[in-house]
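Checked the freezer inventory, then went back to the computational side. Two predictions to log before the end of the day. The first one is the construct we discussed on Monday; recording sequence and tokens without edits.
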Amino acid sequence: MGTHKHMKRYGLILLTSALLLLYLGGQSLPDLSGTTPPPPRPIFGQRSLKKSGQDYHEPQEGLAELTTEQQHYGSINNYIQSVNKPKQKYPTINDVKKYMNSNYTVLVKQKGSQKIADKRQTSINYKRQDVPLKSASPPDYKPLKDVKAQEPSQVPPRENVPYHEILKTQPKSIQRSMPSVSRNAVAANRSNSILAAKQKIATSKKPKKPDSLFTFKDMKSLGPGHNMSRPLAYALSTAKSYLNYEFSEKKFPFIPVPRPGATFRPETANKMDIVGNKPVGTTLKPSEARHILIATTWRSGSSFFGSLLNSYPGAFYYFEPLHYYSRKNNASLLESQDKMDFLKSLFSCQFNTQNLGFLHHVAQPANRFLFKNHNTRMWKACTRILPSEVFCFLPDFMNSVCPLYPIKLMKTVRLRVDETRKLLEDSELNLKVLHLVRDPRGVFASRREKAIQEWCKQDDCAKPENNCANLIKDLEAARQLEADFPGQVLVIRYEDLSLNPVQMVKSILKFLDLPERKEIMDYVDSHTSRDKPQIARNKKTKKVEIVNNPYALARNSSATAFKWRQTMPWQDIVDIQQTCSEAMEILGYSPLADESETRSDQLPFQKSPNDLWPSPVWQKKK
């Protein structure tokens, strides 16, 4: 079987050779002895030359009249020329990218380049779809899609180029008429791509946790035997746990800081020594709690002083409650309650329909700082109870959480000292009034800062004559109230508090009949020894910078009190000294004679705290 198959193959070879001899016209083969045998069928370049209609072993047109030897050498020469011809450079990805960035090139479709043509066409169409052009394409410019659809014979004469010239630049006349891509359009496309990428990343992130622990449906009562809802019970347990930690003798790391929702156990409650050793969690009556009012004016150091006293354990801080009364759109709500009655209701923890407008006012996003930034003890207990922090402004919560705290502290710059008489007459409150004063030159140096001038435009704030007239009236009213209510009014000079904060805080605690606590002394040390820089991002340059915050509480107190001597223009100092000469003399502030005294080491005040306001609290313990 195997021999028979081989014989068939040899027969076919002989038959093919005979047919080839007949095709050559019966001529005898040349004697090629002593010459180089014809090369084998080439592989390199074979495909590209076939595509152009040529073949290495087929005689080209015009060689039929030549001899067989000439035909043979003609084929060899043809082969040598094809081998020496430079290698054809097929299009690469970089060529495609260059083509995409140019609007002046045409892609010629040839057989065998289908894949490259398809890839380029897709990329270019996508590019043109994203980047808008300034004007429409010229009439003689044909899209690539139309060129691709044509057969090679239908391509315009200039585009009917050899296969190896795949990319061809159009004439300059067409280049000049082609629209150019705007830089703004490219930048817009880039920003849109970045925005789309950010949105894609944002959607791929894990879903955020809900911002509240309960829903409004949970506000229903727990059932028989219970008088409060689950959210309210959770908030009160958190508030009691924090308060119990404040009155514990040992702190962190000996006792861990409570977490929101921590369970409060009455049997583990600590004693509150400032209210007769009542246990934490007791609902205190107004007569059992301590009530403190700080009365002052704008930019007198009241924010620092209020925050200092708020660091005392168990303080429930009302920061600027009369901010509610300063808004004209609340005028209709103010008719039902007098200003002093409103302040008494806050001291007594009575939130009802008469002062409900105050909670509505504080609940507005622009006013939430009144609670969020200052009454931190209350805010920790209510911030994540219901959506949008709405639980912090419910009367039921305020009526339940406020009586737990032994100290009710209030600070306001919108109240004259003589108006406090009605509160001092209420024996149930046993109110203590702290009147804070400051050098008018330092007050107006602060009020004339750019950030303060935006809102300090009314006469009582912007004009020195109005401020100094009110300063004299308040000091006279404080003396009269001290005579009528001995031991309940104290005048404090901001400069004394800045120069000697430790001793002044001890004297103030003695006046308030509060024992010294480590928490408030630590606050004095951390907020009066040095400036703490605040870092913020510049809205214009987008760079992170160290900024000067006029509302900062942590500062070098001694340097801040007399900073006006370096920052205030000399002429402004002279004008304020002339306008406020009487008030400065009463408070013990010395005027500057000339500009050189602004650089003097001598401090510009004379009277001591006891000379300004005689009181036994200024005497040091021996």
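The second is the one RB wanted added to the comparison set:
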Amino acid sequence: MQFITSYKPSCESVPEARVLLLGPVGAGKSSFISSVHSVFSGRATNRAMVGSSSTSFTQKLRSYTIRGRGESADQPTSLVFCDAMGLGEGEMSGLTLHDTLAIIKGHAPDGHKFSAEHPVWPETVGYVKKPSQKERVHCVAFVVDASKIDSYSKGMGNTFRQLREHISDLGVHQVALLTHVDKVCQEAARDITKVYRSRLLQHTMEKAGALLGMCTSYIVPVKNYSCELDVDEHTNTLLLSAVSHILQYVDLYFQDVAENKSLAGTGQIEIIKSIMSVLSSNLSSKQEKQLCALFEHSRLHLIYKASVHGYSAANFHQKCDHQGPTITVAYNKAGFVFGGYTSKNYAQTGQNVYDDKAFLFSIRDRNIILVQATDPQYAFTDANNTGPNFAGNLIFLYQSRAAVYSNPGNYYNFNAAEMHGNDLQLTECEVYRVEEHDLLDKPWRNIEWDSAMRKELVDSIKNYKPSISSVDQARVVLIGPIGAGKSSFFNSINSIFQGHVTCRAMCGSAGTSLTTQFRTYSIKAGKDGKPLPIILCDTMGLEENTGAGLDVDDITSILKGHVPDRYQFNPSGPLQSKDDQFHKSVDLQDKIHCVAYVMDCCKVTLISSKLEEKLAAIRKKVNRMAIPQLVLLTKVDEACSCVADNIENVYHCQYIERKIQEVSVRLGIPVSCVVPVKSYSRELELEPSCDVLLLSAVQQMLRFADNYFDDICE
């Protein structure tokens, strides 16, 4: 509470931090404001109008200043919550996109009554024509009801994502409040301190992240006061933690404004949507868990998808031969999910293969039907002219079509109606490699995980000085596909040196590139500390298609130092030397000194040939300029459950070692130049072991930058 009452915006011209709450009707926006006010009042209050109606009680824009407690009860804090009408699923229901952006830009006057027929225009009474920073919104907090997370429609999800894209374009950071957690979890209802121990609430936060297209580290669970007459210490703590979380993002907004004051008031820039061309599974998380439960310590890795690679035996074998144990999953219009597993390689031998572990399956809701071969000698037919062939009783991609051949009998006795509903036309066919998670007794790469190593790495980075006097900071550019984790990596490094989890660079999980500008991020050692001797440069995500994503020619200009901070990428055409934004005169300190390719460990196998060719073209350009290169292999915790349980298992995990070797081959970069990392995504607090892994990656970057400087000197 002391932090909040003493908080002052870091921008001198702004006396109060303005936070806009956005959410569906009944999500708890007004209740959250009243609950926070209750914390500071010392008793349950109902300052903002709340209720349980299906229509929004909040019809007007209202600004609520949170006031101090006790002796300072008459003293307002520097925090203002802005309450608005509830969101709808279209432009004619609830708060519109136009009015939302008008509020954020500072045009909408306090007390304005919302109406789809009368949006906020310059003719609106009280319209602020030239808002200053103090009238603008400095952070947006989305409010979603945990008890309704499964009932929010697809239209509401689209509304959230559209808002997030436009708000991100305005440079305003966003968080989310997950309300009514006590209604979802009985254990949390009895004892709110158990909120972070509940697997149910963890899964609910993940669902909220998917709904919003937002990493779970942005999402904070809260319990609002509703029927209580007195405040509760633990509920207060949860609410105050949420407010503290919000203020951290407010500060990030002011930091961005301070770095480039000319950005304020420039208005919107067109959002460029770039969808990464990678495979996505049709399996629900529940179905995937059901299949994984059939194997011990294993995960499924999608290697073939018929709708992408083609419904033919040739395409299937190109992707699936010599992949080890695989499971085929087929889908039909009748809604059946069925398939078969073989522990053997596909090798097109044309022979029957002995497989005592092979089976057929069909998933129906919570149940899974398993059918094993009556004779393992004929369990699997390694044919060269068909798709997955289980002894001729069940053949997928039959005659290279979206069809399955079904003839139960000789070796697999199954009921066709139970297996696939007698619907032999496929809507999709996928093949997954079944990968075991084995831990080695001895790590294949040595690293110390204790606090002494963390401190040593922090001090080493703080005290680093480029080996060439004309350069104060080493510049490292992050390049990779959309969603690989470039912005998340920067946020994680920034978090370590700020002492808490931050999200200064926009990132998300919606499948769209939130990074549409070239950004150069300098990191400070603490809130008021000196800048570190490293600058991380963030870029737009790569895509396989020409005219989409980051242009290869733009990368050349970035490497040479010609691209300015905040340059808006244009996928249809690179920056030209004749353009006004093109920096013609550059020094060594403006150039890139190290290139870091950022690759998602879960998607290494799924890199398309076109994207691989684009990466090869980039590497060729970088090699010609003699710039050192390394790879950051992100999301290792998502790739291996053993690493998720304990990040210190990363160098004991054979699967991660294989992934590092695979990305090394595909990118043509030595294994010694591939560094696994786990970025902060859903955590609210720092973890020492995670810090060590991240800091080790930064240390490697600085070492590589020194190699570049040494070559220059020679």
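For RB: The chain has three domains: 17-257, 285-436, 451-713. The first helix runs from residue 2 to 5. Let me know if you want it refolded.
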